[in-house]
């Protein structure tokens, strides 16, 4: 009984790499999303550090239309490197990382929106930073959720298969039945020949 429950749990667990080849388009989307956003954040962080703004300077300095200081620049580089790690690993890790970092960006946008024009604005956020945070968060979440959620996922999708194990077992039987019915129809003579 315990082995059956363990087998059932293993079958339900989503194992992206066991179901699809490494070059599957879902894996490519997750990697591309993590790499692209990581590159944007690292470039922003490096440009901010080059400007030699104070580490916790709440006035900040303008870099490519966004306000920054040393702390925000270092934080951007660290998050960008983390996304690059997700790009290298790929699979479920990259997808989940994209979603988690995306949610963190959205929460950061709301938090920093409340801290605008206060003494606690240690990352020197301005309204354009808040909007950028929301946009990056949404983009990362879309990249992370692509092919994972939705009502019209294809039946070869590993996430659909993990959510519908009973239907996965029925599909081969139904396909075999459909093929047999088609074969029977092709063997019957046309009605006008009867």
UniProtKB/TrEMBL annotation:
Region (Disordered): 169-194
Keyword Repeat listed: no
Pfam families documented for this protein: DUF4383
Alphabetized UniProt keyword annotations: Membrane, Transmembrane, Transmembrane helix
Spans traversing the lipid bilayer: 29-50, 70-89, 96-115, 127-146
Highest taxon of the lineage: Bacteria
Presence of the UniProt keyword Transmembrane in the record: yes
Protein name as annotated: DUF4383 domain-containing protein
């Amino acid at each position: 009984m315990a082995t059956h429950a363990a087998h059932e749990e293993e079958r339900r667990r989503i194992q992206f790499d066991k179901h699809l080849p490494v070059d599957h388009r879902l894996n490519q989307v997750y990697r591309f999303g993590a790499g692209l956003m990581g590159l944007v954040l690292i470039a922003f962080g490096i440009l901010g550090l080059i400007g030699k703004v104070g580490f916790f300077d709440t006035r900040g300095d303008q870099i490519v239309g966004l306000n920054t200081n040393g702390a925000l620049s270092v934080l951007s580089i660290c998050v960008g490197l983390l996304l690059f790690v997700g790009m290298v690993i790929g699979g479920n890790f990259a997808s989940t990382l994209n979603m988690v970092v995306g949610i963190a960006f959205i929460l950061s946008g709301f938090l920093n929106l409340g801290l605008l024009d206060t003494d606690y604005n240690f990352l020197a956020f301005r309204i354009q930073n808040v909007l950028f945070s929301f946009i990056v968060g949404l983009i990362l979440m879309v990249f992370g959720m692509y092919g994972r959620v939705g009502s019209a996922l294809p039946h070869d999708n590993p996430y659909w298969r993990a959510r519908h194990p009973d239907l996965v077992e029925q599909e081969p039987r139904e396909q075999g039945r459909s093929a047999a019915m088609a074969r029977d129809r092709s063997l019957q003579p046309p009605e006008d020949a009867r």
